Amino acid sequence: MKKIILLLFSHGAVLGIGFALGVFFLPILTAESAPDAAVLEQEVQQAEYSAQLTRDLRGSDALHWGEGTISVSPERIAHQGELAPGPDYMVYLTKDFVEHEDEFEPVKQDAVRIGAVKSFDGFLLDVPDGVDVEGYTTVVVWCETFGEFITAAKYR
């Protein structure tokens, strides 16, 4: 009986570790290539607003972070830098700066979703028709799957 319990525990632990590693590595393995640096630079030059993403936000930690420059224009949002890899990242615009999931979740219904992040070393997203970036102040990167705050930057 003791042997069966030990086998169940050890196999369950290995299964759990394997699942966790799969959740971590699958987004890395399936990530798209970042946009060409020249394309990102051109978007940055045309952007009306720019802000810095940092790792030192209250909601960021060793597994959930972003750094670099986020640039916002009426047509596109460009990121030059890095994001911690993860599944199902979305970019939102909010009216007020948030730096933790307990601040984002109450305003999420009023935020506008821009689009999905498909690469972790820079991205370029089109602003959907009808979205006025002037009505918002902050870019938020959010993990939909786990409801985790990744990073944010106040651009105006």
Question: What does this protein look like?
Answer:
- This protein has 3 helices and 8 strands, in the order ααββββαββββ.
- The model has no long low-confidence stretch (mean pLDDT 90).
- The longest helix is centred in the first third of the chain and has 29 residues, at 2-30.
- 29% of the residues lie in helices and 31% in strands.
- The termini are far apart.
- By secondary structure, it is α+β, with helices and mostly antiparallel strands.
- The protein has helices spanning 2-30, 37-46, 101-107, and strands at residues 49-53, 66-72, 76-83, 89-94, 112-116, 123-126, 138-143, 148-154.
Task: Give the key terms.
alpha+beta, four-stranded antiparallel beta sheet, 8 strands, 31% strand, 3 helices, 156 residues, 29% helix
Range of helix content: 25-40%
**Structural class, from secondary structure content?**
alpha+beta
Chain-averaged pLDDT: 90
User: How much is the radius of gyration in Å?
Assistant: 18 Å
Oligomeric status:
single chain
What is the helix tally?
3
What portion of the residues fall into strands of 2 or more residues? 25-35%
Please report the total strand number as a whole number.
8
Uncertain segments of ≥5 residues (pLDDT<50)?
A: none
Order of neighbouring strands in the sheet with most strands:
1-2-3-6
What general form does the structure show?
elongated
Distance between the termini: 64 Å
Largest sheet: 4 strands, antiparallel
How are helices and strands ordered from N to C?
HHEEEEHEEEE
